[in-house]
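Morning!

This is the sequence you dropped in the shared folder:
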Amino acid sequence: MPALTRGGPGSVRGERSGHCTLIEHFTGSARWAAVAIGGEEVADEDFAVVDFVAAYDQGIKGALAAFGSEGALEKAVRLPWGEFSGTALIWLAINDQFVHGWDLARAIGHDTDLDPGLADELLVRGQAWITTKVPSTAATTARWRL
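The structure's back. Tokens below.
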């Protein structure tokens, strides 16, 4: 994997401390969402030093199983910042994976032109959750604004 640094065109946006932090979050957030909806809890790992692709795949499989269980999408889930339906939580998880997938792609120099339809959907949903809309210009796409 190419080195990930702050600043410049190959950087991870914001104040991330490097590729390990991004991999930890990207891999761990799928597992967190699965546990939040009632899935099986797994031991913490340092995803950045293990086979993180396998760890990510395992986390996604766990999230899909947890959200696919009967009643999961209708379930009320209490999070530190409020109560959400399982449907709202899955959209939060999808948004998190999409945004940080974009972060990772940009950081390692891969194509960031991710699924435009999904980007548009996530942006509309995200804007409905916040009162301050993200400014839109002709030069930006939904994938960039997310």
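Headline: The CA atoms of residues 45 and 115 lie 30 Å apart.

More detail when I'm at my desk.
O.
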